[in-house]
Design goal:
single chain; 465 residues; alpha+beta; Alpha-Beta Plaits; Dna Ligase, domain 1; six-stranded antiparallel sheet; four-stranded antiparallel sheet; 12 helices; 26% helix; flat
């Protein structure tokens, strides 16, 4: 490793610095000798060592957007802000520091805060507990040189190998030759050093808070029937349509509140089967839903709030193939599901999901409505097995047996070799069965099984379409 230092990259001389006390931590201020060029960046890095929940980081990011639109999350405990254009609003770095600390304090957080021309440098300095204020790239390497390697958050194996070679600080690792470092420790770590020093520009994803839409409309006069309420809701739904189409979003769940003078608000939640943005379509479903609600008092105000927004999907499949049972090329599946749920109620329509169980009666379950489970559950993989009937009986039906052969409207013809299912011993509901594909005298294909245990009865468990 000593050979590596012979062709070391030069480190810029450290700039003149003065040390002050700030919030109990050493604050190193590297004073600017010359003005930066137009367009130069200045990043504020916040390290939050006592952050309890990821939710707090997003809350702080929303507050930080009051200082600059360029806010970037650095999970699990960091936040970055590009603040060069905001300095004049806070009388410089000192005023901005005070404002950021106060914003963190409103959420019960105590940050370590550093300023540097590159985002990674600001974050690394904050992690190291050095609340530096480096305003130019000329002094950046000198300010970073004494910081420990642990602030880079490289893998423990890389840090340990560097320590065994006597490299314990960022300044020491920057003195190593690039080719040798990349060969021994990896190109990713070398790219990190380039981002740290500004050799390559780091592009960071900007934090975007979740899209929200909330509208309230006061009625000119109290409405006692559904017709004027739907007219007012139509205007709110057109506003929602404009909001969604601009952002290429669709609504999956919509909360409509009817406010009364004295009675509690009447809440109507509309769940859709697929993301939708068309106001006329949503209004039709809302009319079906409201027609089943009895108003306790006249309505004086309306509120509309989408509960779930998802990217708008343009490609959907039809319930029936074109020409089959009147099916066309348009999407009928989601429209049918939504109208049935609006007219019959949420409990009348449900989905099915597979469970990881070989026992046929335990391999499926009813699923929650699509709007409630969108993006929240992953379906269990289907167990490796043969073909299964779509119609599975809740309780297997015993079959008549003559001369050892099962009968149902005559003798059944067995079409397959037995498929043995032996499972469930762990929960007391164990089964030991041999399943067969069978066909009756009318050509109906059945799924039957024979019990392996005495008295070795035959049962019908499913019917194929």
């Amino acid at each position: 490793m000593t050979a590596l230092s012979r062709t070391a990259l030069p480190i810029a001389p450290a700039a003149r610095a003065s040390v002050h006390e700030h919030s109990g931590a050493a604050l190193t201020v590297v004073r600017q000798e010359a003005p930066e060029g137009v367009g130069a960046e200045l990043w504020a890095g916040l390290h939050l060592p006592k952050l309890m929940h990821a939710r707090q980081l997003k809350q702080l990011a929303r507050l930080a957007q009051g200082f600059t639109p360029r806010v970037s999350l650095e999970p699990p405990d960091g936040l970055l802000l590009e603040v060069r254009g905001s300095l004049h609003l806070f009388s410089g770095v000192a005023g901005l520091r005070v404002a950021l600390v106060q914003a963190c304090g409103s959420l019960g957080l105590q940050p370590l805060l550093a300023f540097a021309p590159t985002p990674l440098a600001a974050l690394v300095a904050a992690r190291a507990g050095k609340e530096i204020e480096v305003l130019t790239r000329a002094q950046l390497i000198g300010a970073l040189a004494p910081l420990p390697l642990s602030a880079l958050r490289w893998s423990p194996q890389v840090v340990e190998r560097l320590k065994r070679a006597g490299v314990r600080t960022i300044g020491a690792v920057l003195r190593l030759p690039r080719a040798g470092f990349a060969r021994r420790f990896g190109a990713a770590e070398l790219a990190t050093l380039d981002k740290l020093t500004g050799t390559t520009r780091e592009l960071r994803a900007a934090f975007k808070p979740p899209e929200r839409f909330h509208r309230r409309r006061e009625l000119n006069c109290e409405a006692e029937s559904h017709a004027p309420i739907l007219i007012e809701f139509a205007g709110l739904l057109r506003e929602l349509e404009d909001f969604l189409k601009v952002r290429q979003l669709g609504v999956m769940a919509l909360e409509c509140r009817l406010l009364h003078r004295q009675a509690a608000a009447t809440c109507c939640v509309l769940n859709l089967a697929a993301p939708a943005a068309d106001a006329r379509h949503i209004a039709g479903l809302l009319a079906e839903k409201l027609s089943r609600i009895e108003l306790p008092q006249p309505v004086r105000a309306l509120e509309l709030r989408p509960a779930t927004l998802l990217p708008l999907s343009l490609a959907v499949r039809s319930l029936w193939q074109p020409g089959e049972h009147g099916g066309g090329t348009e999407n009928e599946t989601h429209t049918l599901i939504e109208r049935l749920r609006a007219r019959l109620g949420e409990a009348a329509i449900h989905g099915l999901r597979l469970l990881d169980d070989h026992r046929p009666e335990n391999s499926w379950a009813r699923s929650a409505p699509p709007a409630a489970r969108a993006g929240t559950h992953q379906q269990a993989p289907a167990p490796a097995a043969g073909r299964r009937p779509l119609w599975l009986l809740l309780v297997p039906q015993p079959l008549e047996v003559r001369a050892g052969f099962p009968r149902r409207r005559g003798v059944l013809e067995l079409l397959s070799e037995p498929e043995r299912i032996e499972s469930g011993w762990w929960d007391g509901a164990d089964i030991v069965r041999d399943y067969y594909l069978a066909r009756d005298r009318y050509g109906v294909r059945l799924w039957v099984f024979r019990e392996r245990s005495a008295p070795h009865g035959w049962f019908l468990h499913g019917i194929f379409g």
